[in-house]
Write a structure and sequence with these properties.
Shape of chain A: globular
Number of domains of chain A: 1
Number of helices of chain A: 5
Order of helices and strands of chain A: EHEHEHEHH
Shape of chain B: globular
Radius of gyration of chain A: 15 Å
Largest sheet of chain B: 6 strands, mixed
Distance between the termini of chain B: 51 Å
Structural class of chain A: alpha/beta
Number of strands of chain B: 8
CATH topology of chain A: Rossmann fold
Number of helices of chain B: 10
Mean pLDDT of chain A: 89
Oligomer: heterodimer
Low-confidence stretches of chain B: none
Radius of gyration of chain B: 20 Å
Distance between the termini of chain A: 26 Å
Largest sheet of chain A: 4 strands, parallel
CATH architecture of chain A: 3-Layer(aba) Sandwich
Strand order of the largest sheet of chain A: 2-1-3-4
Low-confidence stretches of chain A: 137-141
Order of helices and strands of chain B: HEEEEEHEHEHEHHHHHH
């Protein structure tokens, strides 16, 4: 069987999860590579979660939250924005491609936007290849 | 140098500028932190590059100064601090670990040899009280070498470095900025205990993601590391990134809020919001 990218998606309860739900109820066609984890706010997603996802075999991590200004908890998504941009820089310094982590905004009415993000992310991660493969190569090399 | 420090400490204590001075004391040939309240004892005060007063004590995981301030909140404490120690105190104060209002910093400058030994970019404190300012080491060949590497070369480099790790927790214990009582690096959910080499990307990565924006590049982690992982090099690289991203440098300015602590009131990186990252 050919390799399929595994992507873990952290979706905020109020906007992005509803957006994904809308995509589902509207029967939009969407690549099935994202495993969804619902969190109450994208601000709940700490860098350690993303690292843990990679450790357990994810090839990419997608974090989706409400649009700036729309956060149910006022400023959770701003906090995530800073955290994620710093994490991406950190991963880049350590040799992990920045494209493996993506933060974006999806509101409850944007089912189509959700689908386009998921498809886009899947293709990008597919192009990068599996995350684990790197580690196996290094171990034996 | 140490004579001047003792004299100034005596002056501060006699003028009642501070109630106590926190510094190192030599006893039977060993150095240990000590709280000087009596001017007669100032003769045993010492300075050393080997021991940082902003250190966190293990296993109670308490910063000595914050422990003292919590017990005696009204006491004014003078502290003898080098550049890195002063930066550590500022970052700790931003995170409500210590009260700088009750602290008087006696800033002392490091010598050129000490600066080179520590690969320190800024071997002097902001409010320099004693000593002569010397220029820091601005060039680090390890940093330059890594900047020129491609992403796969970087991965190979760091994978080799981390494969040496023996999970001794030395870097965490030495770090003046690690003060959490419940450390994620000890929790089974995130770090599998009893396994070597450490999982990638966990263990050290947890520390990097926690510390990067508050790291004051004192180099204690690298000095503590028994297997010579170039941790300071990584933090120096991250420091450049943080300067680019948030226009922020840790430990420089008490009034500048740390980027991961700020709220909506001030929003750096506004332009990125619209497109997402």
């Amino acid at each position: 069987m050919s390799w399929e990218p595994k992507i873990v998606g952290f979706l905020c309860n109020w906007c992005s999860y509803r957006g994904a739900d809308l995509a589902g109820t509207a029967r939009m066609k969407c690549s099935p590579n994202v495993r969804t984890i619902r969190v109450m706010c994208s601000g709940r997603v700490e860098p350690t979660f993303i690292l843990k996802a990679f450790q357990l075999g994810a090839d990419g991590v997608l974090v989706l939250g409400c649009h700036p200004g729309d956060c149910h908890y006022t400023e959770g998504n701003y906090k995530t924005l800073r955290r994620m941009s710093l994490l991406k820089k950190m991963l880049a310094q350590l040799g992990v491609e920045e494209e493996r982590v993506r933060l974006d905004w999806v509101s409850a009415s944007e089912g189509d936007h959700f689908v386009s993000i998921v498809n886009d992310m899947t293709e990008k991660v597919r192009a990068l290849g599996p995350f684990r493969q790197n580690s196996e190569e290094e171990k034996h090399g | 140098m140490i004579g001047n420090i003792r004299d100034l400490a005596r002056k501060w204590l006699e003028d009642k500028e501070v109630d106590a001075i926190f510094a190192l004391r030599e006893q039977n040939g060993y150095l240990a932190p000590y709280l000087f309240t009596n001017v007669d004892k100032l003769g045993s005060m010492e300075i050393s590059t080997q021991y940082r007063l902003s250190y966190t004590c293990r296993p109670s995981k308490e910063n000595i100064l914050s422990l003292m301030q919590r017990k005696e909140p009204s006491t004014r404490i003078g502290i003898v601090a080098r550049g890195c120690e002063e930066r550590a105190l500022i970052e700790l104060a931003k995170r409500s670990q210590i009260d700088l209002g009750k602290t008087k910093i006696m800033g002392i400058a490091c010598t050129q040899e000490e600066a080179i030994e520590c690969k320190c970019e800024r071997p002097y404190p902001d409010n320099l009280v004693l000593g002569q300012k010397v220029e820091g080491v601005s060039q680090d060949e390890n940093v330059d070498a890594l900047l020129n590497k491609s992403i796969t070369e970087r991965l190979a480099f760091w994978r080799y470095q981390f494969s040496k790790c023996i999970k001794c927790y030395g870097c965490r214990n030495a770090c003046p900025m690690c003060f959490c009582k419940d450390c994620k690096m000890e929790q089974g959910v995130f770090t599998e205990t009893g396994w070597l080499p450490p999982e990638i990307p966990m263990f050290l990565f947890i520390r990097f993601s926690h510390i990067s924006e508050r790291c004051i590049w004192c180099g204690e982690c690298e000095k503590a590391c028994p297997v010579d992982i170039p941790l300071l090099t990584l933090f120096k690289l991250l420091r450049r990134d943080i300067k680019d991203l948030f226009d922020y440098e840790a430990g420089m300015d008490m009034t500048q809020e740390a980027p991961l602590l700020t709220t909506l009131d001030e929003m750096p990186m506004k332009e990125e919001l619209a497109s997402g990252i």
